[in-house]
Each structure stands twice: as C-alpha cells, then as structure tokens.
Amino acid sequence: MANRTHLVVMPGDGIGPEITAATLHVLHAVDRLLSLGLSFEEVPIGVAALKARGTTLPNASFEAARQADGLILGPVSHNEYPAADKGGLNPSGEMRKRLDLYANIRPAKTRPGLPPVCGKPVDLVVVRENTEGFYADRNMFLGSADIMPTPDLAISMRKITREGSTRIAETAFRLAMTRPRQKVTAVHKANVFRVSDGLFLECVRAVAARYPDVAYDEKIVDAMAALLVRDASTFDVIVTTNMFGDILSDEASEISGSLGLAASLNAGNEHGVAQAQHGSAPDIAGQDRANPSSLIGSAAMLLAWLGDRRSDPRLVTAADLMERALDETVAKKEWRTADLGGPLGTRAFGERVAAVIAGIAMQR
C-alpha cells in the first residue's frame, strides 16, 4: 500500500453530523475504487463535547487534528456557545489560529443544470486571508480585539501584517497560474483604510511583479460587491483580507447558483481543513433535509491539496471524481436535495453521489 492518509473528523453541531456522514460515505466510495488508504478518526467538538467534557474543543480533539494528515470539520453553532472562559471556544476559529491556516480558498462555480442567479456562468475563486483582519479573536496576543471601554463605547481593532498580506498574495498568484485565465483581482478599501489596506496593496503589488504572466487589477470592495452582481463571470482569482473575503465569497457562491454548494478549504503550510462554507442550520438539524454538497466539495478540495503536496495522482483523481459526481448529481432535478428543488434527503444524496462516482469510474 502506498502512503496512507489519516483524516480526523469533527462532525460539529446542527446539521454537521448529517452532512459529515454523507461526506464520509462519498469518501469511502473513492477510497474503495482507488485504494487511497484513507483512515478516519472521529473526535468530539461543539455542544456534545461541552456537555461531556466542559469545553467545545477538548485538548485531545485538537491534538488529534494537529497530528492528522487532514481534517474534516463540520459546521459549528458557535454563536450559541458560552463565553470562552466557560468552555465556549469556536473550533473553527481555533483551528485557523492554532494551525496557522492562513488561506481560506473558496471557489464559486456554476454547476450544470443550475442557472447562475445573475446571468452568465461563474467560475472564480476567492482567496481570503484567514488569520488577521477584523476578526476579533485573531488580532491580540491576549484577549479580544473587540472591546468596550465604557457602556456606551465599543471599539474593534483590525490587524494587517506584511507577512500575512504577502503569503496570501503568493497563494492567490500561484493558484492563478494553474487556471486558464491567469488573472488576479485584489479587493481593498484603501481609500478609507489608507494605512492598513495600503500595506495590503503594497504587498500584493510586490508579489504581482514576480508573476508577469498573471493579469492583475484592483477593485474597491463596495464596487466589487456591485460588479459581482452585474457580471461575476469577468473575475478569476480574487484576493482580499479576512472580512471582505468572508462577505464576498458568500455573495459569489450565491450568485453562482447556491451557497449550499459552496466548498471551502482552510490551508496553511502544514495543515489542511475541509469545511463547508455555510453554517450549522439548527432549524433543520436532524431532519435529513440538509444539502451536503458543500462539505463533499470541501473534502474533494482537501484530497486535491494533499495530492498536490505529495505528488500523489490517486488523491488528485479522487478529488476530480468527487467534483464530477457532484456536477452530474445536481444536474438532475430528481437527484437534488430540497433546497435545490429536489426530493432527496441528506443521506440519499450522499448515496447518489457515491453511486455516480462508481458509474464514472466504470467508464474510465
């Protein structure tokens, strides 16, 4: 057996356990077909871990994730958690900080049979800086960057560093070199944040100078939000800071067809985490109604990331099979989940994707 791949699984809260189970069903299918040597270790996080162990992220669960080849992280209901000092850590944010997952890669691509919301088909990727920006839990050595000095005054601080800006720009330009259009758009608000976004742009421009074959332009964030609605098909790779990237990637995914289809990979130099772009949807939890496409697509991105790092074509092939199967499945209305106008539940959709993978493999 070639290299084995050990994946830690954190099912999370709300619909997390359901979409995670469907994703694992698909992963087992590609593992059987391609002899990938995948192994899975489920560890507790979230509400279940809080009740059992007094914390939403037990040390043992994090340590298992740190030592794994990759991580599958289900959605979490962190807005419902108690304060951090009472055990309510956000597993998603903690993973990004502790594992230095500085790049959040979020593709927005129109799938066959699902028309884009705003006209032309979309095929872009938002490359979002993931460890600083306006996120209050990632900006201070100790404490939160969201503070309230008096009952009537709230202050939030934003951190932009040369290192963070340069490495996310490098990620964006390397990605653009692998895509047909080879174009990067930097999104900013330097007309207001002259110092912090000025530093961000300075770093991106320096990286752009090292990639003369990649077309480069810049857009102010509010204009970018409007341009995506007008015609998102004109964009390829979008690189931006944390909060802008969070907002624009959700917008782009919805425009491309549905946020429920939006995959996401959190990656650093040593670790990769597959994580659905959407939340935990507690209102439909336990009803077998959730669309698992986002986490399935995210798991495919994780396999492709591992395959690229290891120069392992089996993992890259597996990722391609999963993506093709998602395309073929959502293309048929009778195979879709309820949010896309279809009749299938979460479990049946995962089973369908796995069956389509087997069918594609037989044709190869």
Structural notes for this entry:
By secondary structure, the protein is of the alpha/beta class. About 40% of the residues lie in helices and about 15% in strands. It has a 10-stranded mixed beta sheet, sandwiched between helices. Helix 1 packs across helix 9 (about 295-310) and helix 1 (about 15-35) crosses helix 10 (about 315-330). The protein is globular. It starts with a strand and ends with a helix.
Q: Strand content of the residues, in percent?
A: 15-25%
- Report the span from N to C terminus: 22 Å
Describe the strand arrangement of the main beta sheet, using strand numbers: 2-1-3-12-11-4-5-10-8-9
- Shape verdict: globular
Mean pLDDT: 95
Number of strands: 12
Assign the structural class, choosing from mainly alpha, mainly beta, alpha/beta, alpha+beta, or little secondary structure.
alpha/beta
Q: Low-confidence stretches at least 5 residues in length (pLDDT < 50)? A: none
Helix run count: 11
H/E element string? EHEHHEHEEEEHEHEHEHEEHHH
Radius of gyration: 20 Å
Residue share in helices?
40-55%
Report the major sheet.
Answer: 10 strands, mixed
